[in-house]
Amino acid sequence: MVELAAAVLIATGTLFFIAGTVGLLRFPDIFCRLHALTKADGLGLALIALGAALLAGTPGAVFRIVLIWFFVATASATCGHLVARYARQSGAGGGAP
Amino acid sequence: MTTFLSLTLIALLLSILAGLVRIFRGPEPAERMLAAQLFGTAAVAILLVLSQLMAMPALLDVAMVFALLAAITLVAFVVLASRGVR
Questions:
Q1: ∠ at Cα A20 (A61, A17), nearest 5°?
Q2: Cα B77 to chain center, whole Å?
């Protein structure tokens, strides 16, 4: 039962990763690509981390997985804002954001 | 379960491969760096799945290093590019 839940979570997370990559390839400008990448990938990684935490047996492994998720979520949000501000100030987005 | 986790790994690797297309085409340096951020996140996800597939908890530490280094890479790019360094 736990394995089934973990499999469903990991499969959903992988689907979100694929959606984020398709958005990175197909969206027209850098702000749309940023939107696809940071949010879809963040959710995909959170779901995969949840599935891996269900599969992991020891409390230490679960703690490290939660720590990894926290690092990636914080870094992804910060880097998204940094890249968006850089693109707006340097005019790289091609038009008004 | 092993087959399923292997298929997940292949899908995540294909996602990285598609990100390489954006690095090849992407007109701005910032968009190439976005693809690099995708690589960091996907590498963390791959290592999380791989640590369960191979029953190697040490891979979680590798994933943690990846998560921290990907953030530092992007911050360094933004700082250097706003100073005009190419």
A1: 35
A2: 16
User: Measured between alpha carbons, how far is residue B26 from residues A24, A61, A75, B30, B35 in Å?
Assistant: 10, 38, 23, 9, 9
Is there a contact between B5 and B13 (Cβ–Cβ < 8 Å)?
A: no
> Does B60 reach chain A within 8 Å, measured CB to CB?
yes
Rounded mean pLDDT, B35-60: 91
Domain range enclosing B47: 2-83
pLDDT exceeds 60 at position A94: no
| Tokens coding A62 | 């679960």
- Asked if A45 and B45 touch (Cβ cutoff 8 Å), the reply is yes
Helix (H, G, I), strand (E, B) or coil at B79: helix
Residues A38 and A35: their CA atoms lie apart, in Å, by 6
Residue A78 touches partner B, C-beta closer than 8 Å: yes
Question: Is B43 part of the contact surface with chain A (CB cutoff 8 Å)?
Answer: no
pLDDT band at residue B86 under the 50/70/90 scheme = low
This prediction has a pTM of 0.89
Q: Do A71 and B67 touch (CB under 8 A)?
A: yes
